Amino acid sequence: MCKDHNWINTAVRKIEADFQRSADTHLLKLDLPALDGIDIYLKDESTHPTGSLKHRLARSLFLYAICNGWIGPETTVIEASSGSTAVSEAYFARLLGLPFIAVMPKNTAKKKIEQIEFYGGRAHLVDHSAQIYDESRRLAQELNGHYMDQFTYAERATDWRGNNSIANAIFSQMKLEPHPEPQWIVMSPGTGGTSATIGRYIRYQKFNTKLCVADPENSVFFDAYHTNDPHLTCQQGSKIEGIGRPRVEPSFIAGVVDEMRKIPDAASVATAHWLSELLGRKVGASTGTNFYAVLQLACEMKSRGETGSIVTLLCDSGERYLDSYFDPNWVAENIGSLTPYLNQLKEIEQHGCSAPIC
Ligand SMILES: *Cc1c(COP(=O)(O)O)cnc(C)c1O
């Protein structure tokens, strides 16, 4: 329990000063003339100092833990992560001069492990993604440290009503667009925290925008949403890094989700490749998951003769995944053929939604 106000004040000020030095991330407008009438936007979260949307979450989790007295000047910070959160938390731990240990599945992208170590953190690898929770709790006890527990606290550490959330940023950046209030915002769930923030903000602001959440294979969120069963688990870990979980995370708030879609992993990876070509730079696979759902929704809007806008997130850069999603051998071994999806995506790019996409 930290009651040292001097340390708390200094720690909060350091995090606030870091925020003050930061700019908001860009909202990119996509150029897809074949989808005429549907404007698609990507909030580019890859440009945060630590490379993903988890920069926002790590900032919120540290502020929450400091203000709750959970971490102090001597605390070792421990986190269960599939990688991105740990990179961002390692950054903030270093800013505060605290030791940091990330408990991650052993198949986590090497680039992420290198980045954690670059920021002075330590990677503690386990065999399966379902083991990260207990191992983090055990380590925290052993070292008298603090387990941050992003999967529990993501939804509540983020100030969703205020003017500094990703949801508020999206709506304010959309203000001068032809369709400023999006028909859909699409997000894929890891903690579920970003979806919770966006969904709550939409309701709080009385917008008519709907929230679509896109789940990968090897994840329980989709089934949990449809069965209302919070105890579902699955054995195999998600192959789409950053999203898809083996248990229903406490931060997943089903009540603010208007619709869920299950996206095949091959579609996610193919879309990440195709979108990377379109943008001229590589995006991660969860961005592919998001964008495949965006294209489904866009084509459904087209078929109903609707016009409007759809917003989604570019969650992280594909440069982190050169030895996985962007390695043809890895893809052939772990995901399978992308060709049918790549053909479908080219077709949409060139001729619009002639073929149904589902
Ligand atoms: C965490 C993460 C997500 C999902 O965001 P949540 O707010 O945790 O649901 C998507 N993509 C990537 C790359 C991530 O790291």
TrEMBL record:
UniProt-listed Enzyme Commission number(s): 4.4.1.1
Entry's localization field: Cytoplasm
Pathway the protein takes part in: Amino-acid biosynthesis; L-cysteine biosynthesis; L-cysteine from L-serine: step 2/2
InterPro entries assigned: Cds1, Cys_Synth/Cystath_Beta-Synth, TrpB-like_PALP, TrpB-like_PALP_sf
Major subcellular location class: cytoplasm
Swiss-Prot/TrEMBL catalytic activity: O-acetyl-L-serine + hydrogen sulfide = L-cysteine + acetate; L-cysteine + H2O = hydrogen sulfide + pyruvate + NH4(+) + H(+)
GO BP annotation list: L-cysteine catabolic process to pyruvate
Residue stretches making up the Tryptophan synthase beta chain-like PALP domain: 25-316
Keywords: Cytoplasm, Lyase, Pyridoxal phosphate
Family: Belongs to the cysteine synthase/cystathionine beta-synthase family. Cds1 subfamily.
Role summary: A cysteine desulfhydrase that generates hydrogen sulfide, H(2)S. The H(2)S produced by this enzyme stimulates respiration in M.tuberculosis, mediated primarily via cytochrome bd with a lesser contribution from cytochrome bc1/aa3. H(2)S modulates the balance between respiration and glycolysis, and also contributes to redox homeostasis. Probably eliminates toxic levels of Cys (which can induce oxidative stress). A cysteine desulfhydrase that generates hydrogen sulfide, H(2)S. The H(2)S produced by this enzyme may modulate central metabolism.
Name recorded for this polypeptide: L-cysteine desulfhydrase Cds1
